[in-house]
Amino acid sequence: MSSVTVPPVLTSPRDDAIQLYRAFKGILFFPPFFFYFLLGLGCDTAAVVHILAHRDVTQRGLIQQEYRAMYSEDLVKRLSSELSGDVKRAVLLWVQDPAGRDASIVRQALSGNVVDLKAATEVICSRTPSQIQHFKQLYFAMFGVYLEQDIEYQASGDHKKVLSLTFHDFDISLLPSIVN
Q1: Keyword set for this entry (predicted)?
Q2: Whole domain around residue 107: which residue ranges?
């Protein structure tokens, strides 16, 4: 089974931004022949995924900055307009920093047509206190509402108690008495 890995040699964010722009335009580069070919068929989704899949979160952030500087356009908005379906959803989550991605996932889980407390719980309970603090700040900045308010509104009973406790420092030995 293979896995996606980040290349050991850092690539240039400028080159990646140019390659993404060309992929959006349907311009492909064929290295064996050293020429560009204009297909005019729209976005080359495979090229976009290939570029972003082989970069870590820091590199993707630098690519976004370079893309904005070069083309006066937000890369996330361009990705949103060029991609569709599950690929779009995955790539848009992928290009966010981890705390922003967590905020987006939890917001969608708590405010969708069907509330998915399992997804919200998985994200919240798998983070360290410092990650939760950063994630809560981003949640408010992105959505204008406190995470605690959304949990209070959507969760109930013991589930609400457990999720609420993850935002506060407490002695884990007290958990059984709190839940009961």
Answers
A1: Annexin, Membrane, Repeat, Transmembrane, Transmembrane helix
A2: 98-179
